[in-house]
Design brief:
Blueprint: H1 4-18, E1 23-28, H2 39-46, E2 51-57, E3 60-65, E4 69-74, E5 79-82, E6 89-95, E7 100-105, E8 111-116, H3 117-127, H4 139-146, H5 153-157, H6 168-178, H7 191-210, E9 248-252, E10 255-259, H8 275-281
Antiparallel strand pairs: 1-6, 2-3, 3-4, 4-8, 5-7, 6-7, 9-10
The structure holds zinc ion.
Length: 282
Amino acid sequence: MPELPEVETERRRLAERIEGRRIVSARIDDARLTRPEDPALAAAVLTGACVTEVGRRGKYIVVHLDDGHALLVHLRMTGGFRYAPATHERAILELDDGARIAYRDTRRFGTWSVLEEDDADRLLAVKNGPEPLGRSFTAVFLAGRLAGRKAPVKAAILDQRTVAGLGNIYAVEALWHARIHPLRSAGDLDADEVADLRDGIRQALRLGIRRQGADLGDGAYAGGTMQNEFRVYGRTGEPCSRCGTPIAKAQVAGRGTWFCPTCQAVRRSSRRPSRSRRRSSA
Ligand SMILES: [Zn+2]
């Protein structure tokens, strides 16, 4: 399931080919993609439009068009763009430079919505909290979202309105970076821990983007290498790269959740030196 780094990688590849180009023909072969809208109507809006910019908001790719519309693409499980003929093609865009771009989706959970820009903005704002790599994702904002919540912190950070773009993989990686046990109650984190969590989320995502996401071998996001650098995800029993303790696995809200029982102890034995003290002594 693509998360922010995989979606961002798809966005960059698409932007390279489509920005500044005119869509001379659009064909949508799978009605599920645009449901409940008619795929022929969506294709008609896309045809003839010029792509001004390809952006991203959370896990959405946002294709801005020069006629005031935007195409929102959510890849869900296995969606992605292909630049050579592929199996499971669900839609085809032909560009004024002769390029052919296919949207491929094996599992068919992905969605395309063609909306007016204002409606697209509203929808994206309702679905997504701040961009984790942007300025508005502050420790203060995150603390406000976690305050008073009994849910495990791992479940809380999967809520796209708390932080946009995280899924199971980067949530567990972020918690390892932050040294926070995934089962702790979200509302129990102190201010230092929330700041560590914010930093951990950013660290995990930045690394994922640098590695062009994770290729989990299903052919959906080929080319990424993040899977070789997971610190905890899927690594049950392997030594923690920080302390050597075997990585443990638990279930949180029905999802596999990996962590280091030492670095991410449920109870931190004593009060750690404060964040500022740790920094000054480093
Ligand atoms: Zn460890």
